[in-house]
Design a protein that fits this description.
It is a single chain. The chain is mainly beta. Helices cover about 10% and strands about 50% of the residues. About 45% of the residues are buried. The strands form 2 sheets. The protein has a 19-stranded parallel sheet that branches. The protein is built from 4 helices and 30 strands. Bound molecules: 2-acetamido-2-deoxy-beta-D-glucopyranose (NAG) (2 copies). The site of one 2-acetamido-2-deoxy-beta-D-glucopyranose (NAG) has 5 residues, from loops.
């Protein structure tokens, strides 16, 4: 008689266990299709109630939950997704369609947010398009009329463990994506697009947040591609195409007297095309205890950028609210490494640091910025540090 191995003898049992396990893992990831909650895909009927009901159901689930947005256009008035009481620690919003803001900007009016997640933990957004339909509001603003401010597009506040991938955000009325008071946020393969003349349409703004990663994304807009506000630490930005827009900006900082600093930021492998700035640090010329420390800008390509490298600590539009003060923001340890391409103006490198607190530890390593086949220039005020490797323009440090 042939002896059966342990595995052979127990094969039926293994199958049963496998089957039960497989089944229960399907059942565990409940799917909440917003159409089952009354959402309409014609882009005209307000589907906010359906989204909020699907959110409540997913949030109450004790296991991972997916809210599914099928193909089609869904109109959404302002919707706030509250996570404080959620049982589920893993909610995925999977979008195959597009979510549209009302085309009449007065419907949302002066509310600060369009789609906002507050106090959520473990939320992912996969795919989809958010369309802020901002053009009529921008036209109102650009005509100098009295218009509402308009809402931020997508906001995460007071939240942690957020994963956004493959999302397109376009034509937001204000900033496209805001990360405020969050920890551990990943944005990958995100596409932001709005016209170069659309006011205040920053791509991604991060503030009061730690451990945020922005990778493999393409951002074209009318304001900063990425802006970095007070209280940001451990921010990683990699493989970004920026333009049109105002570049990547740390700031504006130093408006408040008491303000947390910005530290440990890496910006690498970024291409700027036709932007107003490339790498910018900007602070108000006001008293403040804020700071900027330990920043690395590495492997950057500039293509026809007006201010490729700039630190501006004299920011004070119309000379209002800055009573002849130097900026109190202390800037130290900023490294620029392998920055090359073309400047659209003669001054390719500009350090205008605070007369009260000069910049220290600025390091320029292998910089090659040309200006219309002419020598480009660098200008320094109150800036200390060192240059090494190839330097064009000649360093003024
Ligand atoms: C985050 O929570 C604080 C209170 O803990 C609150 O004041 C603040 O408004 C919240 N942030 C946002 C953007 O909702
Ligand atoms: C600097 O850039 C110019 C123009 O792109 C290029 O011809 C030159 O080889 C570069 N020099 C170095 C040292 O990389």
């Amino acid at each position: 008689m042939i002896k059966m191995s342990f595995l052979e003898k127990n094969l039926p049992l293994f199958f049963t266990i496998f089957f039960l396990f497989f089944n229960s893992s399907i059942a565990a990831n409940a799917i909440y299709n917003i159409q089952n909650y009354g959402a309409k895909s014609n882009g005209k009927i307000d589907s906010s109630k359906a989204f909020l009901s699907a959110w409540s159901a997913a949030c109450a689930s004790t296991s991972p939950a997916t809210i599914y947005v099928p193909k089609g256009n869904y109109m959404l008035k302002n919707a706030y997704f509250q996570g404080e009481k959620c049982k589920s620690k893993a909610i995925t919003l999977r979008i195959d369609g597009a979510i549209l803001a009302p085309s009449d900007y007065n419907v949302i009016g002066n509310k600060e947010n369009w789609i906002k997640f507050d106090r959520v933990n473990g939320v992912s957004i996969i795919g989809g398009t958010l369309d802020g339909q901002g053009s009529s509001l921008w036209a109102c603003k650009n005509s100098g009329n009295n218009c509402p401010q308009g809402p931020m597009g997508l906001t995460f506040s007071n939240s942690s463990n957020i994963d956004i991938s493959g999302l397109t955000s376009k034509n937001s009325q204000m900033f496209h994506i805001l990360v405020d008071n969050c920890d551990n946020v990943k944005l990958q393969g995100v596409k932001v697009s709005a016209p170069g003349n659309s006011p205040n349409t920053d791509g991604i703004h991060v503030q009061y947040s730690s451990r945020v990663t922005i990778k493999n994304s393409r951002i074209g807009t009318g304001d900063d591609c990425i802006s970095i506000g007070p209280g940001t630490s451990n921010l990683w930005i990699e493989n970004i195409a920026c333009g049109p827009g105002h570049g990547i900006s740390i700031g504006s900082l130093g408006w408040e007297l008491q303000e947390p600093g910005v530290q440990d930021v890496t910006v690498k492998t970024v291409t700027f095309t036709g932007t107003q700035n490339g790498l910018r640090v900007k602070t108000w010329a006001r008293s403040s205890n804020g700071f900027v420390n330990n920043i690395l800008f590495q492997h950057i390509v500039m293509s026809n950028v007006q201010n490729p490298i700039i630190i501006d600590q004299n920011y004070c539009p119309n000379n209002e609210n800055c009573p002849h003060q130097g900026s109190g923001v202390k800037i130290s340890d900023i490294k620029y490494q392998d920055i090359h391409g073309t400047s659209a103006t003669e001054v390719a490198v500009k350090f205008e640091c605070s007369k009260k607190y000069p910049c220290s530890g600025i390091s320029l390593e292998d910089v090659n910025l040309s200006y219309r086949d002419q020598p480009s220039e660098a200008s320094c005020a109150n800036a200390g540090g060192r240059a090494s490797g190839f330097q064009k323009p000649n360093s003024c440090l």
